[in-house]
Give the backbone structure.
Amino acid sequence: MKAALERLGFGPCYHMFEIFMNPDHIARWLPVASGGPVDWAQVFEGYQSTQDWPASHFWRELADAYPEAKVVLTVRDPHSWYLSFQALMQRGGGVGAEPPPAIAQLRPVLELIGQAHFGKGWRFGEAVPDEELAVQAYHRHVATVKESVAAQRLLVFDVREGWEPLCSFLGVEVPAAEPFPRLNDSEWMQQALERMRSGEQLPSPFQQPH
């Protein structure tokens, strides 16, 4: 989605990897964990769109702060999503291994997000939520967004649908003879997290398809 939005002219798009590649951005996010006021313009300075955690968790606040913005709710098979989430947590989320420094510093924000979805007893790095609990959280999130965002402002989108519904919703032309991007796969994520732990420079996963 990040690569697609940027291809359509809505970039730069803020994604979790912006934090990994720009560790100074961590300070932009830490205030949200304390429940104090957040200057969203400062958080997203230099960006036109956003998706992925941590930003997507604050969809209510962002919808209010940017009343003209459109909302894209991406959906997929929840059990497939759970396997991806489980793998990410086990490889890079501190479950059974020390997380990369950027993730460790962002712990208060990630715990806030996790507890909102999985319950107050959830602690970052201690365990992956079981599948039933996580899938329930997935369905609850999708239902809440659908109920809360005005229909004319919301697109419920599965990336397997390709460019057409997204471009129609955003009012832009479909890229000619160009497949919808497929990036950020689990193998790349594992390699990236290992490089982050070793302190190597992290390349962007959004430049070339795998």
Remarks:
- The chain has a mean pLDDT of 86.
- Strands lie at 13-14, 49-50, 71-74, 154-157.
- The first helix runs from residue 2 to 7.
- The domain at 2-196 is CATH 3.40.50.300 (Rossmann fold).
